[in-house]
Amino acid sequence: MRYFVFVVGKYPFRSLHFNSTKILKKIKSKLLEQCKQLKKVIFNSADVDTLDENPTCDNFYEFRVLDLNWCENSPPCSDDDELELMLGEDQQHCLFEYSFEFLSRYPNAKKISTSAPTCDMDMHLQYLDGILINCYSTVEAIKFDHQTPHNFVRKVINSKSSAIKSFTVRLADWDTSKLDANLFRKSEISKNNILKVLKLRHCVDTSVSVGNQEPTEFLETLIGNQTLETLGLELFKVSNSEKLSPLIQVPNIKSLICNFESFEASLLH
Q1: How far apart are alpha carbons 43 and 64 in whole angstroms?
Q2: Whole-prediction pTM value?
Q3: Residue 181: enclosing H or E segment and its boundaries?
Q4: Which of 47, 220, 265, 268 has the fewest CB atoms within 10 Å, counting from its CB?
């Protein structure tokens, strides 16, 4: 074998739990026995083991997409001390400020995807600052597969990081069209000059957002933005093309993503 770099698809670390490092070290040794010139193995996607202290095995492995899947039995604790602190404070998971320091052990990650049980609101964490702190310079995309806290939306949009180009937000029924507009207005999305992709979706894929019937007021908050190229409006049910009229004043948006109920109105826009 003469490979210098080897690329691998998705790797289910979470299924290995605390043995991840041991197994990866063994794989590394076997690979180097067969290919002495091999410098790096790149995983395109991996389920993160938050307690793994050296997942890269001294920078031999590199991870492009990090899938963070937390639940009550597996919270995103970075070490045993943080786990004990969280349990010792005897508070709800959603209000505990996890450090997310474990993300710093995955340098050069390009995308973070988060998911949590839809039915367990206690695992819809409210304080996610650590994600930005530990991935500030490299992560280009952040994607939520569960409800996104408003304070994190504001911090991503106001982030000084020049890396974050794509952001997928999940909002709930009580996030009405007016509340959504206020959220992005206060976040000053019109002044953001980094994001190229912004997608708004309902917190549950199989549900229809009752509170988000029209996107007009939200779209008005985008006027002045000069960098967005792709806009996802799957959160909204658009009744007619006139409701999309503010987009005429944001000509840099070239791609529009909608749900099936809004297909006709979007096509006529």
Answers
A1: 6
A2: 0.88
A3: helix 177-186
A4: 268
As given in the structure block, the two tokens for residue 204 are 């549950």
Q: DSSP of 20-79, one letter per residue?
A: HHHHHHHHHHHHHHH-TT--EEEEEEEE--TT-S-TTTTTTEEESEEEEE-BTTB---SS
Question: How many degrees, rounded to 5, is the angle at CA 91 between CA 88 and CA 92?
Answer: 135
User: Considering all CA atoms of the chain, what is the largest pairwise distance in Å, rounded to the nearest integer?
Assistant: 64
Does 8 score more than 80 pLDDT? Answer: no
Task: State the Cα–Cα distance between residues 224 and 247, nearest whole angstrom.
Answer: 11
Contact predicate 66/106, CB 8 Å? yes
pLDDT tens, 197-248?
Answer: 999 988 776 555 555 668 899 999 999 999 999 999 888 888 777 888 899 9
Percentage of the chain exceeding pLDDT 70: 82
* pLDDT at residue 70 greater than cutoff 90: no
Residue 183 · residue 216 · CB < 8 Å: no
Three-state secondary structure call for residue 12: coil
Buried-state track 151-163, b at ≥16 Cβ within 10 A, e below 16:
ebbbebbebeeee
Question: Greater confidence, 199 or 147?
Answer: 199
User: Among 200, 195, 174, 176, which Cα is nearest to 252's?
Assistant: 195
Return d(Cα 234, Cα 244) in angstroms, integer: 13
Closest CA to 191 of 223, 168, 216, 163: 223
Token pair belonging to 183: 């959220």
